[in-house]
Amino acid sequence: MPLRDVLGQPHAVETVRRGLSRGKLHHALLFAGPDGVGKELTAFGLACAIGCTVAPGEGCGTCPTCHRMTTFSREGARVPIHPDVVLVARGLYPKEVLGRSTDEKTDISVDQVRRVVLDRVNLSPHEAPQRVVIVRAADELSTGAANALLKTLEEPPAHTRFVLLTSKPGELLPTIRSRTQLIRFAALSDATVEHVLLARGVDLEIARRVAPLAAGSVATAMALADPSSAEERTVAVEALRAAASGPLAKALEVTSSYANTGEARATLGAQLVALAGEEAGEVRRLVLSGGDDRAITRALARREAAVALAESLERNPNVPLALEAAWLHLRRR
Ligand SMILES: [Zn+2]
Fold it and tell me: pTM for the whole thing?
């Protein structure tokens, strides 16, 4: 992925490109912005720009180096097959690799930072002039993990760069924020989201329908366009109905049947964000067409229910508990 292929983030990409060409790019970058807007693509673009000898400073996207930097291992941890691009993410590595007795569930452990980052930062890179360490969802670093990283961020080894990705920069330790250069990524325009969906093989009709609902995130749009997420869609709609007007018993029934996995949670969250957008559109439509007050109130309640559920999911990793909390919140009003 050459830097020029990152869509809709001209400011962020230009900051990276210019810093690199002038030799003034901070050794530790913090890419902050919504999920699914190109932060990770840009981080990999930076790695290619450093490693590529065909198009130095940009990346060509096709040479063996660029290819291996952006191709992920099929066996074991899903990490780039090029040894100089190091990926850090919660749950990415088997517990044996990290020397742990349990898998990582809620955060990026200090074990991962030690084994995957600190154990190798003082070694020279294998092939590229510099190693690039990419931390996905850096807000999930445990306090111990963040503290273990701090010293390295403060006194960077000569041949290692860091790119921390986050959609919640406020949840990072202030000490981490102060040792990194912040580069902001904006939500994408609907047209850019649609463009990316089409490039990924989504039908034109579906791309047109979901792009305006995705709040500028390709990840959300892809979740909405995925036919296999129809079940989450149904759950989300039922959850909304129950939250807006149904009895609590019905709401709890919906939650208890719901699969409680991280993936299901992410998809449900995306569905709720989209539903909130749809209901907001419905409210606008009703107001403009002089619709009756009760219909407007119901649409507003459904929108608020969607927002409350989505927020509750953000705070609570357990799906049924998050849904219950949101319902109780709405019922109390
Ligand atoms: Zn290349």
Answer: 0.76
